[in-house]
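Customer ticket, subject: "Can you confirm the structure for SLA1 homology domain-containing protein?"

Message body: Hello, I'm evaluating your service for our small team and ran a test protein. I'd like someone to confirm that this is what the system normally returns, since I don't have a reference to compare against.
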Amino acid sequence: MAYVWICVSIVLLFASSSEAREWTARSGDYSLEAELVGFDDYYVVLQRADMEMGIAKIDDLSVQDQKYLASETAEAIHEKNLGGMQTWVTADGQKLVGRIVDFASRDVTVQRRRGRVYVNDRLLNSLPDFYRQLIPQIVSHFDEIDLPDQRAFQNWVLRQRGVARTFQVNGVIFESENGDEYAVPFFVFDEKDHDWLTAGWAEWKISQIDAELQASDDLPREQAFMLQTLAAAHFRNQEIQTQIAKMNLNLSAVRVGLTSAWEVTLYPQPGNPLPPQWVVALGRDSDQAIAAALNQNPGFMVGTVRRVSR
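Agent reply: Thanks for trying us out. I re-ran your input and got the following:
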């Protein structure tokens, strides 16, 4: 049985909004004492007593845990933690009210047709004010020109003589209060938020490649929900770190009594760009487990070790 948790190291996340309960893997091999943070149709995020979060597939949880997630109690906790609107401030002081829901790499096309300006085939004037203000910034950034106001932007549009101009925007998907989604580039955020948001960009790009190779949406879904949870947490506390430690559990050998499972925390050595890893390795003692974990993950050094099965 392969079972995957992803844990996120943080300084502080959500104020305690629910009592900790025991969560159990569907196989019964692994359990965790933690509070519920939030969930979607596929994943659940939990917070342990040490203030670290973990994400798991709902299908990998016990039937009892799945029933709990379908309860009104769980829904109320989710809404309190993740359901509210967030206010993000751009580098120039503009406020964006909504929710960050995913990473994105999308084309933004600007064209003047029949005397009107269209953005991705939508009338510029029909877009919300915050996005109308962002479009000149996108053009200014990629064309390396100064467009200080809407008049300067309209003059730039006229100079294109009806030719469509397309810019590839790397950033996040921002869901507005009415549910519409817009691609917001990283570069419009202030330096602190820019660095925080881009920390997960490389892993998101890898997930897109893996999704194509595996013909599966699991990794993109997981990345999106993790970003949603982290964005909500970051909105509450600006000191949150975004390194993700992946924890893999494979306890099939434990069931037949051949060995024990040990949770080995690994930290990247200098020069290793990968995030920390929470590796569950098999061994008759901790030394065997550490050796197995390091053998499977070169470029890391050992942190804490704890037994997760007898």
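A couple of notes from the result: The chain has three domains: 2-84+195-245, 92-188, 251-307. The radius of gyration is 23 Å. Feel free to reply with more questions.
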